[in-house]
């Protein structure tokens, strides 16, 4: 993680604490039973993911994806790198939206040389994106939208889990996990709606996590600074993933079926990547010693690639939309539709997270409706979205 873009909790926590209004007693955390059931899901995925995914090929075989354009965030490492390589090898035009642009160019060069003589050159390009900076997201969107090109899939893959690290905040003043894993992808998704409309039928794929089962989001305390809940990196990570499901649920509900954009959250499973780079050395070594249970990045990429390319996924999304299901489509590590956590089903808090997220990323509450109608949208970052 780029520490220059971050400040510690001591610098800015007081400015962001929003407190609890209302008067009625609000739920401020999962109760012990919910917490226990959540952990059962996590442990179950850990021990049984290989068995439940044993029907899947590795890698998945893909149809020809010529003419399909995908943006993949965080494609320099782990699951994102695998998704990018496989989509590109199937013929898609893939945009690597990354912080480390030089390294991304080196990766493309390596893939091209490995593929030499085996067919057409890969259609991969690199654009700079740092999710810890809302300005960077706006700049990325401006550059992309200026092309007036159709986008078929936005894969919000980049994420952080700074296990055991102290609480940190972005320059925008938001808790780092919440910004990189939820607020940044939410802003990017909204700013790219015009391009996704142009590419319709299109998909927003959010790489989520089974850890959302132990998450809890309080829309009045997105930064975990009010003191009602103790900050831990685990709480921050799991909350950010639950916030993403809640925001996606309202976004998916509000996008009219005719617009042809579906929003899907996907669990990759528990995967051996660089996500554990912040774990203490001893735990990291143990993590490396349990390869039987843990997926490698190629195995972990399957559910995301499936959600991005399978032709039946839009039908499934349409069915849930017609049924007024309270949660967005959620696809599990075994490429099967799954149920998100109980907490994800609470529509009232999902509405609250939707509103708070738009406020935090500087967009008006009717942004989606305006974009769908092709109107310009004013926003505090001055991005031209039309
Ligand atoms: N691994 C698992 O067990 C697991 C389980 C469930 C969900 N997930 C989710 O899967 C996704 C991919 O994670 P991974 O396991 O593949 O981890 P990873 O190997 O650490 O890859 C994370 C990617 O995100 C990028 N990234 C981090 N901060 C960023 C920022 N501020 N702006 C732009 N890009 C940024 C990283 O870029 P740099 O190379 O520049 O650092 C890297 O390319 C994440 O959303 C994670 O939460 C992973």
UniProtKB/TrEMBL annotation:
Region entry Disordered, spans: 1-22
Family stated for the protein in its record: Belongs to the short-chain dehydrogenases/reductases (SDR) family.
Gene Ontology MF terms in the entry: oxidoreductase activity
Gene3D superfamilies: NAD(P)-binding Rossmann-like Domain
Compositional bias ranges of the Low complexity kind: 1-10
Keywords: Oxidoreductase
Pfam (any one): adh_short
Domain of life: Eukaryota
Family matches, as SUPFAM superfamilies: NAD(P)-binding Rossmann-fold domains
Name of protein: Uncharacterized protein
InterPro entries (alphabetical): NAD(P)-bd_dom_sf (IPR036291), SDR_fam (IPR002347)
């Amino acid at each position: 993680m780029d520490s220059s873009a971050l400040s510690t909790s001591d610098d800015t926590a007081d400015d962001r604490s929003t407190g609890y209004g209302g008067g009625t007693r609000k739920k401020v955390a999962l109760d012990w039973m919910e917490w226990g059931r959540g952990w059962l899901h996590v442990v179950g995925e850990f021990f049984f993911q290989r068995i439940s995914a044993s029907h899947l090929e590795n890698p998945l075989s893909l149809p020809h994806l010529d003419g399909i354009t995908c943006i993949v965030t965080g494609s320099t490492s782990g699951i994102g790198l695998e998704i990018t390589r496989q989509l590109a090898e199937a013929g898609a035009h893939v945009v690597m939206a990354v912080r480390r642009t030089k390294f991304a160019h080196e990766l493309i060069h390596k893939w091209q040389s490995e593929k030499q003589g085996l067919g057409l050159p890969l259609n991969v390009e690199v654009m700079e994106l740092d999710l810890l900076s809302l300005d960077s997201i706006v700049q990325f969107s401006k550059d992309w939208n200026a092309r007036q090109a159709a986008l078929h899939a936005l894969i919000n893959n980049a994420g952080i889990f700074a296990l055991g690290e102290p609480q940190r905040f972005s320059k925008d003043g938001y808790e780092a996990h919440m910004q990189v894993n939820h607020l940044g992808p939410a802003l990017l998704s909204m700013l790219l709606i015009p391009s996704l409309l142009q590419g319709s039928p299109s998909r927003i794929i959010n790489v989520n996590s089974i850890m959302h089962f132990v998450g809890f989001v309080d829309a009045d305390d997105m930064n975990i600074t009010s003191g009602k809940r103790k900050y831990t990196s685990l709480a921050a990570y799991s909350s950010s993933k639950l916030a993403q499901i809640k925001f996606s649920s309202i976004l998916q509900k509000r996008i009219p079926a005719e617009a042809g954009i579906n929003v899907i959250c996907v669990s990759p499973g528990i995967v051996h990547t660089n996500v554990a780079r912040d774990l203490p050395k001893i735990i990291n070594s143990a993590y490396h010693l349990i390869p039987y249970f843990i997926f490698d990045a190629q195995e972990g990429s399957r559910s995301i690639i499936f959600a991005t390319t399978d032709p039946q996924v839009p039908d499934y999304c349409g069915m849930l939309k017609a049924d007024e299901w309270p949660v967005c489509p959620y696809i599990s590590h075994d490429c099967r539709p799954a149920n998100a956590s109980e907490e994800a089903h609470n529509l009232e808090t999902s509405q609250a997270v939707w509103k708070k997220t738009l406020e935090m990323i500087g967009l008006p509450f009717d942004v989606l409706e305006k974009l769908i109608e092709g109107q310009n949208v004013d926003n505090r970052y001055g991005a031209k979205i039309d």
